[in-house]
Design brief:
By secondary structure, this protein is of the alpha/beta class. It contains ten helices and 14 strands. The relative contact order is 0.16. The chain binds pyridoxal-5'-phosphate.
Length: 366
């Protein structure tokens, strides 16, 4: 049996007629940049998250960069984020001219360890970017308390957590703004690059929209220099179709996760969903000893896996100049050696889940 990590062809088969019709409509109407398909998706996604504004942008990395720029964060500023995330989070901070300051992750939830944030705050700290990693919300209450106390802005990196919730509220809606990626493999993915920033703040929303679109207020009235980073209409139309299925898809992911939890507990380290959180399971990340060997054997059985991520960001060559050491991130460093993402997606059926479990058990008991 072949079990991919994600299965975008199966997903397409399940919604083919709707997707094909949406794509045809955009081409028929020839509205490719801005226009009604983008407006509609932005409105629907804002409603889904229960926020006032959604601004479609070119990708998730730009979403974070644009949020920082619109908030006036840049040169001389420090921004705190998690050591274990995709590089896009810290890249956007550097790109904005600020300095990323990394904090270790929590040993059970794998999201930023909020107990370690205070030690990272300096007079230059302007913002915290918690990452809702693997679909699990970061522990937002203590972060919001710290932010208030130290007058910091909270920008959520929700690129892996569409539809995840924290005490009943969808992530992305908890900070000053939330940043999403619609990279194809994400929980809500386009057929190419795409992203969005969401916010409740009317003034910030307008700045974000202008910055992402050449600083323009009107066609040739540019208030300031921005960039060109827009969600195009084809992607918006595709996302609008997929959004209708998102809740169902998340529930299906959660059902797969429950089966894995039951079958694998005691055999491997299973992910822990935080109390009060709705984990959306972008990834199902287990912990095993001898990971490379397990990964290789699973592949021989047709099961694809991934490692998200093999090296904590501050220890990558890209951040050598910041002078961090592995002992600064004991939890993220240990995790990086043991984590393994096993297949999870909305098209996975019982026999496929059982097959992964059976093979994994066999490998680990031998
Ligand atoms: C995917 C991802 C991003 C960036 O999204 P792109 O659309 O690929 O630019 C940012 N942060 C995290 C945590 C991600 O997983």
């Amino acid at each position: 049996m072949k079990i991919p990590l994600v299965d975008l062809t199966a997903q397409y088969r399940s919604i083919k007629s709707e997707i094909d019709a949406a794509i045809s409509a955009v081409i028929r109407d020839a509205v490719f940049i801005g226009g009604r398909y983008v407006d509609e998706f932005e409105g629907h996604f804002a409603d889904y998250l229960n926020v006032r504004h959604c601004i479609g942008v070119g990708n998730g990395t730009d979403a974070i960069f644009i949020a920082l720029k619109a908030l006036g964060i840049g040169s001389g500023d420090e921004v705190i984020t998690a050591a274990n995330t995709f590089i896009a989070t810290s890249e956007a901070i550097s790109l904005a001219g600020a300095k990323p300051v990394f904090v270790d992750c929590h040993p059970e939830t794998y999201t930023i360890d909020t107990r370690r944030i205070p030690a990272a705050i300096t007079p230059r700290t302007k913002a915290i970017i918690p990452v809702h990693l693997y679909g699990q919300p970061a522990d937002m209450d203590p972060i919001l308390v710290l932010a208030k106390k130290h007058d910091l802005t909270v920008i959520e990196d929700a690129a892996q957590a569409h539809g995840a919730a924290y005490h009943g509220r969808k992530v992305g809606a908890l900070g000053v703004c939330g940043c999403f990626s619609f990279y194809p493999g994400k929980i809500l993915g386009a057929y190419g690059d795409g992203g969005a920033v969401v916010t409740q703040d009317d003034v910030l929303a307008e700045k974000i929209r202008m910055f992402a679109n050449h600083g323009r207020k009107d066609k040739y009235l540019h208030e300031f220099e921005g960039i060109n980073s827009r969600l195009d209409a084809l992607q918006a139309a595709i996302l609008d179709v997929k959004l209708k299925h998102l809740e169902n898809w998340i529930e299906r992911r959660r059902a797969v996760a429950r089966k894995y939890d039951e079958a694998l507990r005691g055999i491997v380290g299973t992910p822990k969903a935080m109390a009060g959180a709705r984990h959306a399971y972008h990834l199902y990340v287990i912990r095993v000893k001898g990971r490379e060997k397990v990964q290789k054997k699973l592949l021989e059985d047709g099961i694809s896996t991934g490692v998200h991520y093999p090296v904590p960001l501050p220890l990558l060559p890209a951040y050598r100049h910041l002078g961090y050491q592995a002992k600064d991130f004991p939890v993220a460093s240990r995790l990086a050696d043991e984590i393994l993402s096993i297949p999870i997606h909305e098209s996975m059926e019982r026999p496929q889940v059982d097959y992964v479990v059976e093979k994994l058990k066999k490998i680990l008991t031998h």
